[in-house]
Amino acid sequence: MTASTPILPGTPAVQRHDSHWASAGYVPPWLPPIAVAGALLILVPLISMATRVEWANFGALVTSPSSLAALALSLRTSLAATALCILLGVPMAMVLARVDFPLKSLARTLVLVPLVLPPVVGGLALLYAFGRRGLLGGVMNLLGIDIAFSTTAVVLAQTFVALPFMVLTLESALRSRGARYEGVAATLGARRGYAFRHVTLPLMWPALVAGTVLCFARALGEFGATLTFAGSLEGVTRTVPLEIYLQREVDPDAAVALSLLLIVIALVIVGLAYRRPGSRRAQ
Amino acid sequence: MASRGLNARVTVEPGRTLALLGPNGSGKSSLLGVLAGLLRPDAGSARLGGVELFEISPSAVRWPRPDERPIGLLGQEPLLFPHLSALDNVAFSARATGSSRSDARELAMSWLRAVDAESLAQSRPGALSGGEAQRVAIARALAAGPSVLLLDEPLAALDVDSAVTVRAVLADVLRDRTAVLATHNVVDASMLADDIAVLHSGLIVESGPARNVLARPQHPFTARMAGRGLIRGMRTESGIRMQDGTELLGAPADDAPAGTDAMLTVRPGAVRVTQVDSGTQRPTRNTLTATITAVETHAESLRVWAGGLIADLDLERARDHAPTRGDAVTLQIDPAVAVVYRACATRGIICN
Questions:
Q1: Would you say residue A72 lies in a domain?
Q2: Smallest Cβ distance to A190: which of B96, B133, B165?
């Protein structure tokens, strides 16, 4: 640093545009009440559920053998599905954001289909692909693999519905940042693989964390595709949402207790995902 | 090369710095992008010290990736990797090409020292000022050991004080280095470059040693950028004769024979402007009459463009009778300051 530099050390090189003006002045007065109504729509059911919890038996209800089996299965499958989403989603987002190929917009639309498809339909589609009599069933029979109604099927169903969250999050991050840093890395002699590992991945880290958390949440909550494609076998394919649906008839207290557990997990996940990991970058 | 309407041929001698001088959108950045390998042209080729850098022609396509080229690029924005310290930014190239961490850091430290940024080594890019970041970016580009360094408006994004510091650093590191500098700034071009090529709408309109190009322009556009008046005519014994027969006197800079195409250039300070209808006594020696095409304030005076010449008019004097666009004026040229020299037969050839 030289004495002639007039800018104070620590001054951000790039000022955020929105820091100069208070943003609240631009909201029409009739808008906040509607926003509150929307928030109540989400909040009231959650509170109502919390009031129904049998607090005295809560521990026993969520640690019953069937609850524990469902929780363990959910955790295992969701983690596996999340790992698959990272493994498949990073290359998909890179290709969509950085490679020009024919019918690219069609490809992007197809990737996002699971987002808008009813999960039951997704489950059926998976069944017709990987099921015993599915499109790939013959090949898989020959190889001695039977996926349908197995834990693998649960993971596949969860990956199917969660993958778009990863691709969407990463691709928008990649596109908004552009490839300028990768260009710099290339002119500095970094091969594409090195630049990907040492520039692209670190820069997409906040988006990767957000995408991972979203994928895990979506996988944990998966119900329709799992039920259709994997069935509901205790300890094998009966995840927490399926267990809740089953207990709803037999033991409503257990269903409510497990539901509350899912809500707490969801809150923690949303808190993690929206901690705005990128907000420190401007400093 | 042809890319985005760019059609240019440039040569830079080893150890020299060539400035590509042109306004925004004239194709400077595109040309640098093509050389660095970041922008692929429709057709073109480049050689580096006798070795082919790339070639795209109907008969051959050889287009190495940027990382396979011995070419460095410094942009308008520093683009330091935000997740690495200044030191690790400078060490990036060495690490990427296989050096050990300690070797890379040692090399990086010596380059930070070269740009007077040693104390910034542990800083995160976000904590640096624009000028500091650009100095670190210079060190990073040089640490890669490029055969040719490309600089794309390296001072354009800096405030005046930072620009002064960074310009001094650049002047230092560009000495004896092969470099191409894209700039729209005549001051940067004349202070940093040995040679200048002037780009106008994707074409190179003239090129040559920096001092010659700016002091004796061949193209009206160059003259405008250099802030000089320029008139084309035919060589006479002691000046030029314009197409309309007006004869102007000036100091000959070469011994071209009378009757050949010639140029006369003069700086604004040596041109006196008088309004035709102002009633004041108009000069008659070494004058020409023209219509004002533009007027703007320039420091303490009004700068007037007319008939290819530029003249400065004292603001005090211009007060009662401010000249405006379309006014007829008489321009008197100081024959001792005006320079007369050979005009190139065709534009774009090097004859400076």
A1: yes
A2: B96
